[in-house]
Write a structure and sequence with these properties.
By secondary structure, the chain is α/β, with parallel strands linked by helices. It contains four helices and eight strands, in the order H-E-E-E-E-E-H-E-E-H-E-H.
Length: 175
């Protein structure tokens, strides 16, 4: 796979949609695990949907020094994570990195099905609702930049968790 350009990363960030976000937030003082289902439509296979599944783990947030970009790590990701890091240095919100996170992608599987994207999306969304598992997410992303789509989901989950994490740090006298 060739390296992604900044435009590829921007396109993936703009066009990734979290269809079902987990009810669970990132724990302030523990490790949090999410199960993801990432749907993409391959450009070279009309009428097909690629379903990628796996687990994302987020280590507990930690306070960082101001040059915290060096502590933003994605274990188990390929070169797309590095392309995202470079893009984020140029376009991201540096206030976001007041806390450090390490992300681990594991238990990964991939399947190509020949069904309409809406049917696949509806089936998985219904499965998520019926199980009531608060750690599951359904993401629609870009096939060639699917890891960036997964990183966007992670970034959005962190953003949703930051207020609670800051409150917990403050309550314990750590901020």
């Amino acid at each position: 796979m060739s390296s992604l350009s900044p435009d590829d990363v921007s396109y993936a960030m703009e066009n990734t949609v979290v269809v079902c976000e987990p009810d669970r937030l990132i724990d302030t003082f523990g490790t949090t695990s999410f199960r993801f289902h990432l749907l993409t439509e391959p450009m070279d296979s009309a009428g097909a949907v690629r379903i990628r599944e796996g687990r994302m783990e987020a280590d507990r947030p930690k306070i960082l020094r101001p040059d915290g970009y060096d502590d933003f790590s994605f274990e188990g990701f390929g070169e797309q994570a590095e392309a995202f890091s470079q893009w984020f240095r140029q376009n991201g919100n540096s206030a976001f990195l007041q806390y450090g996170f390490q992300f681990v992608k594991s238990g990964f599987s991939e399947e190509l099905v020949h069904l309409p994207i809406e049917a696949v999306k509806d089936r998985i969304a219904e499965e998520i609702r019926s199980t009531g598992d608060p750690s599951r997410a359904l993401i629609y992303g870009i096939d060639d930049a699917w890891e960036v789509s997964l990183i966007k989901f992670t970034i959005e989950t962190i953003a949703r968790s930051l207020r609670m994490n800051a409150f917990d740090f403050h309550r314990r006298g750590l901020l």
